[in-house]
């Protein structure tokens, strides 16, 4: 004979308890959807004018790659935070 101390319906959900599925899994009408869009526009113009000089070396650095990496990292952080917030609700 199987005895239970508490009813399964009164049991609170816990992520550590594999015997009790998440409440949203019991309801077939619950659906999840997400959409994310990230756009980055980069325009750079550079003009260097050297007048009346000899033996001059000019070195420039294009920062587009660094800005692209920064934008990608920011988008990844937003995704991670969004997932964390959604999991906590």
From TrEMBL:
Q: Name one GO cellular component term.
A: spore wall
Q: Name one GO biological process term.
A: sporulation resulting in formation of a cellular spore
Q: Which InterPro entries match?
A: Spore_coat_X/V
Work out whether the entry's keyword set contains Magnesium: no
Indicate whether tRNA-binding appears among the record's keywords. no
The record's keywords, sorted A to Z, are: Capsid protein, Virion
- An example of a Pfam family matching this protein is Coat_X
- Region of interest (Disordered), residue spans: 1-31
Q: Where is the Spore coat protein X/V domain?
A: 29-85
> For bias kind Polar residues, which ranges apply?
16-30
Q: Quote the protein name from its UniProt record.
A: Spore coat protein
Can you name the source organism? Bacillus cereus
